[in-house]
Amino acid sequence: MIEAKKINKYFGGFQALKEVSCHFEKGKTNLIIGRSGSGKTVLMKCLIGLYEVDSGEILYDGRNFSTMILNERKAIRQEIGMLFQGAALFDFLNVEENVMFPLTMFTKQSLKEKLERVNFVLNRVDLKGSNKLKISELSGGMRKRVAIARAIAMNPRYLFCDEPNSGLDPQTSGVIDHLIKEITEEYNITTIVNTHDMNSVLSIGDTVAFIYNGQLWWSGSNKEILNTTNKELNDFVFGTELTVRLKQYFQQKEQ
Amino acid sequence: MKIFGIIGRYFLLMRRVFTRPQKGFVFRKRLFDEFQYLGVESLGIVAFISIFMGAVVAIQTAYNIANPLVSLSLIGFTTRQSIILEFSPTMISLILAGKVGSRIASEIGTMRVTEQIDALEIMGVNSANFLILPKVVASLLINPILIIISMWLGLVGGWAAIMVTGLCTSTDFVTGLRDTFEEFSIFYALIKTVIFAFIISTISSFHGYETEGGALEVGQASTKAVVVSSILIILFNLILTQLLLT
To answer: Do A86 and B115 touch (CB under 8 A)?
Structure first.
C-alpha cells in the first residue's frame, strides 16, 4: 500500500498540491483522476520522487519515502515499475534490450535467464516474437505494451501508469486498461493510474481519487462515481457530449 | 546572477556524472558506441577540412613570400606551425563543437523531453552518469586521435597543393616541415585538444540535460550548446596559449 499524508507542493508562489492525503491499496487498480492542470501529474511525480514534496509524508508499505537517503530511495525504486504517457522507451535499444534493461542494470542473472524473463513478459503482453524490432517500428499501442513489459520485468511491488491511454484509439485503450488490471491482480501489486479517461475509470477503477485545484476533492469506487452529488466531480464525469447524452437517455428511460 | 545559477547547476551535474558506473560492461558497451558516434563518424569532415585547409595555408604562404632572399622552405615551416599549433587543435575542435556538440545536446535533450531520463531515474539509474560519462570519456580519448589525423592530413594537403601548383619543390617544403621542430608543440596541441574535448562534451551534455519543453526547446538547447562551447573554446585557447607557450 502507498499512502500520502498531508502533502503540499509549491512551484514558486503557486501551490500545486494542498494537504493531499490519500491511500492506494495493494492488489487494486487505484486511479487518480482530474482535469488537465488539476495537479494529478504533480501528485504522481511526488509519489515517485521525481518532485520533492515541500511538506507531508509518502509511505511505501509503512516505509517513509520522503525522509529516505538516496540509496534507500534507489532500493525502493527497484520495486517500482512505471508506464509513462509516451512510453519513454529507450530509442537506442530494441524491444528486447529495452525490456532487459532493468534486469541488466540491477540483477546478476545470466543472459539465458534474462532472455527467458524477457520472453515471458513479452508473451504476457502479447508481443511474442517482437524481440528484435526497433522502437521506431512500433505502433503507439505496441509501445505501451513494451513499456508495460519493461515495467513488470523486475516483478515490481508498485506500478505507476501516467495516462496510459493517451494517443490511443478506444479499442487499444481498452486492451491496455485490461492488461494493467490483469497484471495488478495477477501479481498482487499496488497500481496507481493517472488518467482523465472515463472509460478507464468505469472499467478498471477499483478506487478513484478525484483531484481538483490541487486538493483531494472526492474519493470512492467507480461504482459510486456515477451517483455522486459532488458538483465538480459530476462536471468532470459528464464533461463530454457522449456522457451527457447517455445520462439523458438513461434518465428518460427510467421515467 | 543567473550565470552563477547556471555554473552551479553545471558543477552539480558534473558531480553526478563523475561517479563509478553502476555496471562496468554496460559502460564499456556505451563507450564503444560513443567512439563510433563521436569519433569515427566525424572522421570524414575532419579529413576533408584538414586537407583543404593545409593546402590553402601552403598556397597563401607561398604567394606572400615576395622576397627572393627568403627561403621557400618557409612555406613548409609556416604550414606546419599553423596546422599543429592552431588549426588542428582549435579549428577542428570548433568544427567538432558544431557537429558533435549539437548531436550530444539534441540526443540528451530529446531523451529529456520524451521522459527517457525520468524513466532511468525511476528505475534507480544515475541518468547523468549513464548518459554523459561515456560521451565525455569517448571525447577525451577519441578527439586527440582525430586531431593527430588532422595534423597529418593538413601537412599532406599542404604538400599536395605545392606539388600541384609548383610553388616550391617537395624538398624545400619537407625541409621547412622539419626545420626547428619541437616535440612540445604536439604536446601543447594535445593538451588543448583534451581540454576542448571536455568542454564540448560536458557543456553540450549539460544543455541537453537541462532541456525542458518540446522539440523547439531541443533545437534551442542544441544551438546554445554549440554557441557556448565555441565561446569557451576560444577563451580557453587564449588562456592555454598564454600558460603553455610563454
So the answer is: yes
Is residue A8 in some structural domain? Answer: yes
Structural domain boundaries, residue A23: 2-223
A86 Cβ partners below 8 Å, 6+ apart? A166, A167, B114, B115
Distance (Å, whole) CA A117 – CA A96: 10
> Is residue A234 in a domain?
no
Inter-chain touch B118–A90, beta carbons under 8 Å: no
- SS3 per-residue string spanning chain B: CHHHHHHHHHHHHHHHHCCCCCCHHHHHHHHHHHHHHHHHHHHHHHHHHHHHHHHHHHHHHHHHCCCCCCCCHHHHHHHHHHHHHHHHHHHHHHHHHHHHHHHHHHHHHHHHHCCHHHHHHHHCCCHHHHHHHHHHHHHHHHHHHHHHHHHHHHHHHHHHHHHHHCCCCHHHHHHHHHCCCCCHHHHHHHHHHHHHHHHHHHHHHHHHHCCCCCHHHHHHHHHHHHHHHHHHHHHHHHHHHHHHHC
Distance from CA of A90 to the nearest CA of B (A): 6
The alpha carbon of residue B29 is apart from the nearest alpha carbon of chain A, in Å, by 12
Which of A74, A89, A160 lies nearest to residue B124, judging by beta carbons? A74
Give the CATH number for residue A206. Answer: 3.40.50.300
Q: Please indicate, yes or no, if residue A214 is contained in any of the structural domains.
A: yes
- A195-218 pLDDT, tens digit per residue, is 888 888 888 889 999 999 999 998
Q: Looking at the DSSP assignment, which residues form a beta bridge with residue A24?
A: A2
For residue B193, name the pLDDT band (cuts at 50, 70, 90): very high
